[in-house]
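Researcher: I'm comparing several assemblies side by side, and this is the next one on my list. It has 724 residues spread over two chains. Same procedure as the others: predict the full complex and return the structure.
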Amino acid sequence: MKCAKIQLLLTRYIDQDVTMEERMGVETHILHCPACKELVDIMNQETAVLHHVLTTPPLPDHFTIDILDKLEPFPIPKDATVVQSMTRSARRKSATRLIGKRAAVVSAALLVTLATGSFVSPTFAEYISSFITRIGGEWGVKLAAEQGFSTAVNQKVTSNGYTFRVKDIVADPTRLVATFTIEDENGEILPDLYIPNYGVNQLFITDTDGNRLSKTNSFTRGDDFADFVFDLNDPPDQVVVHFQIKEFGSKDPKSVDWNLSAAVDLSASKKVTQNLPIEEIYVSPQGIRFHLKNILYAPSATRLSIETTLTEKAKNRYIEQAEQIAGIELDEETLNRYGATLFSYHLENEKGEHVAVSEEGRFNPKKSGLIYHTLVKADPGVEAWHGSFVPFSTKEQMYWVLDSLNVVEPAQFSMEFEPAELAQHPVSKTYQGNTYTVVGMEKQKDPQTNDLVTAIRLEGTSSVFEFNRWALLDASGKEYKVEIDYANSEFVDQRFVQTLLVSDLPEDLTKLKLVMKTIRNKYTDVKWRVPLPQPK
Amino acid sequence: MDDDKECVSQVLQGNKQAYGYLIDKYRDKVHAIMIRMLNQSQDAQDLTQECFIKAYNSLHSFDSERKFSSWLYRIAVNLCITNQQTKQRQPYLYGDLELVSLPDTPSPECMYLKKEFATELHFLIDRLPESYKIVLLLRYVDDLTYQEMSQVLDIPVNLVQVRLYRARQKLREYFSKTKEGGELHEVR
């Protein structure tokens, strides 16, 4: 071979990417050609240097374990033992087949039954770990997800420069959680991901025929994602989640037109769900009847169904009390409010150790072991609740224990004030350990109707979270209807601001009286412990 | 390589620990790619981790006819590309790598093989275009054949060869410039 030809081959020769023939050609040539031999030497040295220079310091020992800790084992296939007993070569062959089969099974579980098609989210594993801290505890949704009850969606829709992206959906017969982000034009996730589930927006679940199943949902925030949680109640095998969003943002609402639907298959998770009756009843000293109906063991959560009703006796007592509130006409709406109950309970094992806690129906995603507690339907006098918690060890016998309840009851309290004097002398009074201060009164435009209304502003402290209902009387005893302006009322810790709106209030009234119609009172004199049936 | 495939099938049958064997085997090689392509060692570790997690989650789609290592490197290279598209490059801190020692070389003509040029060599390698850098890494850190590199990078084998040749040539060029002095320091 000639020198020129050799030099063309050299890189490949050095990298050992030559045919037998080519190699022999080079090696024969350099036996007689010092120039080319030197070139080969240099290049070999270069290679050695490159090897050294490009080598990086080894990773720390724990690197491997750190990764393994983030991974969940693949489920053990039923025929695993059969595979292991085969000879090595046969095993390799059937392992190959198994890989193929697994590919089909896993993709069936992860593939979405979407009309528009989709792909598996590349950061699925990270999503699973982000779920851990979200729905009431460590393993609930994660377990559901790894068993194939989650749907990687990654569908998006863009409007006005903003992109609404549904990342994935985890669902079982108790609830459906849709995870989403909102991005700007550059793909950056917005800090404000709040999407209201009322007003112009419609977020709901239907069956495949379009019949609405669930609207009750809640919004929870993670670091760079947010969830909608829909309660499900005995859903069909296939449901469709609909997002029709016209506005988002908690402070400055932004206008968009997002429409997106995602189909979710619940059949696999339904197969492993068990619904066991409990049917235990207890009536509290206040006359609130508790009915612990059943317990549902589903992949992502275990859910108790509890119904509270007002006994006839208690209802009559409330009516009597309410009629004693001087000068007020009892309206249907207020009457129906009496007896509305929130309650606290916990789960404990045989030893009395608390396993999970529900605090007056409030869900705190930061605490693990807490119960996700929602109101399912509220007919007058009957409230049906679901308390969901992540699956606990079902080997131990668990007990449901009622801790306290608070009930909306008639109040005996009023405050007189002079509108003209309020600026100089706000009026303050205490009742049942709470303080109420009338801070101001002014005419303004009703945000909903644009009519002129009178807004009365209250501030105070209250140990129980509840906006009291009020009536307004003038000096002659005439009653005016009072609405609560929820948009301008809020509770922070135990302090509140409440704005009341009154329509058609005459200008020249010098003395007014605010009469409290409802107050929520707390009671701890309850005693009830129920053993929970274990799943089969 | 049969070891690797055996491992994969074990993992797919529920033996998570078997994946540890694969991580141990390839982690430094994947990391070497990341650290060079990203110029920031913390990101490199994260991205190395991400590479193994991604591979694990796609394990069911791994074609056992292929080499596990090529498949893994493919994932690594793709992660680099995605990462570069979204992040800004940071200046590289060479502290870690100065400890790497060079072999003694007998021929005085090849100045750039001398120990004192180790730091410069790191810097020069970093200045290489991505396409040249990655072939150097895959070949001289990961010991991939041209065929494997062609699969990992999705380019014809000829192009692999050309890039390697040019990469080495470029390095020699850079070094002859530094011999003349000046350019290296100006760039900083």
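Model: For your comparison table: The two ends of chain B are 43 Å apart (CA to CA).
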